[in-house]
């Protein structure tokens, strides 16, 4: 009961305390009034208000009091102060005023436009100092000699890193100039907002020097030791304050004000360093300000957010993107907490955080922040403003990386409009937009538009920097890349070589820009088939990257990837595998597995593993790629579709083929949706799906897909490219399976023509095309045409592969088959014996190719009546024909002609058991064997059955002639032989040679019969 009463008492106390009024005092004065007139001017009649409080007007001393009811002390609220003709200068300090503070809130008003005037003056001074310093440094850099070396050395010291040469230094300075100019409006806004009436003596002196443009003198005033001493003293005071609550709160608020003054000094000093391009010093100063604020702030506020933001921008300019990201992330978190989601300050915070995410390859999250920046910008100033071009450009970059080409193009066009309007045609931001638009058109295969944008870039660079400036050379590299993609290889090579000449003249051969030119030229040489020189150039690139960046740097990894891709294209899979694995080791450690650069190397490694025969490893890699792409891009994205295709190609077993087909159908759907039917990636997915369908015998759909892919390949790569001829070949195969031999021949004739022109008649790919074309010509019985191309294939294989190569043996077998069809059995036998010797030596006795040779050779021996040789091969080939009735019959015939009638009858019986539809042949053959072996009764039974089956044919009567001749009934034998000829039997060779008719050959009737047959046949 006692506890319950205490609890109720506590509740009553809380309610009473909550209901109490809390007074917040403030004082309003004119900004910088004491600084300008030596006396603070207080504002009477200003209207002060806040949520949960009654408003109040200021008195003659500028004092107002707000009475809060229903909220607790310690709660932050936003204070609004209004006075006609005046504007609040320190509005950001009024966003989160803590209820219950003991010192009055200071509010500073200024006549409208006065603050803007001050900002403009400070901006003009800052830009003047900044551009003068930039010009001074650039002038020194462009002069050869000691001055250049001194500037580079100083920059290296300030940046904390190595600079390769003057051009790299100039590029860094240009980037820093633009970055600092972009920051200046915000910097001078904060600088102009500092109320000098309450500033320290040191700050006042430094500010006055800064306002005159004497930046180095201002830096000398802002003594680092004194600032550090003041910061330490303020921190210690805040920790030591004791006494009653009232005194503690007053003292704490006073020390917080002191901290703010020190932070403002730090900010002025850091900003001064930036104007002199001393970024490393500026970063250190910002970090000191952050450390002081983090030590002394009871709760986070906008002052701390500003410090995080400024530190983030500095580290971005220094190239330390991870540190930049961490500071910008903290800035955004504070701004969202304090300002809500629609304050203009957030647009800037989102933009810079997104930029940091782009530098760390996190494009999806970066896109989200850029879109947030656009929304905030639109709410505050609209979408037609000076800073909007940068946001659109950043968005275009991330959309492009994510494969959203339409959105990328729309954003780029908006970026160009904004940049041309607010910055001019020759501004770096505008140039970047042109470059981005060219890149978009390039990826969309709109090469003419890409060339227009790049040529515009070249013209501006030549005018602004000169025809031999590296900036101009870089634009030529971009032009060369577009010309290469539009198959203007001669022009592309000229553009790249022109760029390389400029780079080599400016920097020498061992510079990253020169090396980039080598990379582009290597790509062109590879397309021309000059792989030797392409490899040499890429090896130079790798040597440079390893020396410059180290063997574990992502840039080095990229060069490993490119050379690996070249080796893979050349089918040098071992070297390709080694390089892809080296690239992956670096990329996984740097970026992790879920990164586009890493995924590209995975794609390459999977490809070489597949072609080198390690399907299990390739399959595991492809499964990993699919998981990563689905995670990064989602299931409806072209990059994911590419991963589906790669995995599907690995699924080769019968139980996996349905999954492969499903994956490829998904890939086709995604590509058609996002890229269209005439895109090269879509065409690749058509071909892959067609390949699966062919394995399942679905030739009609496979043909449709190949025919859809073919125009894209022809347009993209040309009709003579190996990519395109590969499609001709696949389409020919599908048509052959459908039985359309003429259609297949048409496609293969294109392959032969292209290969002869680009590869020559002796190339192995040309030989393969000859063989395929000959096979189809053989199928339509164009034996001479087939012979022509097979002889070419034989010649090519003997020269390029050697006379002991299995592929050469295969061409011998093909040619032998044609010669058999033409009746040239002697040549066919010779070719087959050569092929068999090669296959036995290289592939082994039991290899399918060897067994095929045995089968064909046995057939030739049979046709040449070399029956002993046929039977000598029987142990090799019997297993292949055990269930073939024709083969069993052929064995029986060999034994028959060798007069081993018992064996002949055995195989005739086996043949008949396998196919009882051959009764007539069975009766004929066994009857003749029985007759010649002396078993006349058995022969007679079979001859009688045969005559019942074919009473009007000549063969049964021929058999009776044999039967009666062997039984020495010469007249009856002649009667039957004459009857056989009368009914159409006309095998004169057999009549003249068969031993069983020997007893008839002296008979006049026999001679007349033979003479009559000879005359008819002649």
Notes on the protein architecture:
Helix content is 74%, strand content 4%. The protein contains 47 helices and 10 strands. It has a 5-stranded mixed beta sheet with strand order 3-5-1-10-8, with no helix packed on it.
Number of helices: 47
The outline comes out as: elongated
Task: Compute the number of strand runs.
Answer: 10
Radius of gyration: 46 Å
Helix content: over 70%
Largest sheet: 5 strands, mixed
- The quaternary structure here is single chain
- Low-pLDDT stretches are 1-19
Structural class: mainly alpha
Brief summary of the model shown:
By secondary structure, this protein is mainly alpha-helical.
Keywords summarizing the entry:
10 strands, 1018 residues, mainly alpha, 3-stranded antiparallel β-sheet, disordered N terminus, 47 helices
Task: Give the secondary structure arrangement, pairings included.
Layout: H1 2-19, E1 21-30, H2 33-37, E2 47-49, E3 53-54, E4 56-57, E5 63-69, E6 76-77, E7 80-82, E8 86-88, E9 97-98, E10 105-111, H3 114-141, H4 146-159, H5 166-193, H6 201-211, H7 215-221, H8 224-240, H9 245-275, H10 279-296, H11 302-317, H12 321-339, H13 344-359, H14 363-380, H15 388-401, H16 405-422, H17 428-443, H18 447-464, H19 470-485, H20 489-507, H21 512-527, H22 531-548, H23 554-569, H24 573-591, H25 596-611, H26 615-633, H27 638-650, H28 657-674, H29 680-695, H30 699-717, H31 722-738, H32 741-758, H33 764-779, H34 783-800, H35 806-821, H36 825-842, H37 848-863, H38 867-872, H39 874-881, H40 885-897, H41 901-914, H42 919-932, H43 936-949, H44 954-966, H45 970-982, H46 988-993, H47 1004-1017
Parallel strand pairs: 1-10
Antiparallel strand pairs: 1-5, 2-4, 2-7, 3-5, 6-9, 8-10
Helix pairs in contact: 3-5, 6-7, 6-9, 7-9, 8-9, 8-10, 9-10, 10-11, 11-12, 12-13, 13-14, 14-15, 15-16, 15-17, 16-17, 17-18, 18-19, 19-20, 19-21, 20-21, 21-22, 22-23, 23-24, 23-25, 24-25, 25-26, 26-27, 27-28, 27-29, 28-29, 29-30, 30-31, 31-32, 32-33, 33-34, 34-35, 35-36, 35-37, 36-37, 37-39, ...
